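User: My advisor, Dr. K., asked me to get a structural model of this assembly before our group meeting. I'm new to this, so sorry if the format is off. These are the inputs:
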Amino acid sequence: RKEVEQDPGPFNVPEGATVAFNCTYSNSASQSFFWYRQDCRKEPKLLMSVYSSGNEDGRFTAQLNRASQYISLLIRDSKLSDSATYLCVVNRFGEYGNKLVFGAGTILRVKS
Amino acid sequence: DVKVTQSSRYLVKRTGEKVFLECVQDMDHENMFWYRQDPGLGLRLIYFSYDVKMKEKGDIPEGYSVSREKKERFSLILESASTNQTSMYLCASRDTRPDEDEQYFGPGTRLTVT
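Assistant: The format is fine. Below is the predicted structure of the whole assembly, which you can bring to the meeting.
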């Protein structure tokens, strides 16, 4: 079983739609959670951290359910520019510092 | 603005060649990482370095080695390139301060081994 699992998609949605991505992780010791965004042929960039109480950044809402080891990302009022791959990321503790474990990503395509 | 640069965007090498991929960051970060990214598998950690001359194996270190002689530079070495090392290679760096979560990536090097 992969340490971080995501539905690969693609999710094809019209502009203005609300779309949700889910992610599960297997290491119950993970303490930090993130969503990264990767545009086509570009490097990943941090979209938002995910906090236990849930957090919102404009049209984006992230939720964490520790009991179920489940993370979600909700995008409201989708824009064409939201088209990208969304990577679910959790930390893994190590002797020499934390390392990040990346999911394979969920592809979002927003169409006009 | 953090900047992570990689020496090449595209590279084509022959099987058996020794390959050097260079990465430089300008933010004085202690931690640096090398990943490869393949379709369906996501980013997988090859090696990371937590200080100059210090390194630790990631999840898939076989066939690779690394060098960190200066804080800003982290090199990935393929001792004898093989076709299964054809991939996108991404370098990243991160601060070690507790409130610094973000990992910054370079633009990637697409390596093809023929």
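One thing worth pointing out at the meeting: The mean pLDDT of chain A is 93.

User: Perfect, thanks a lot.
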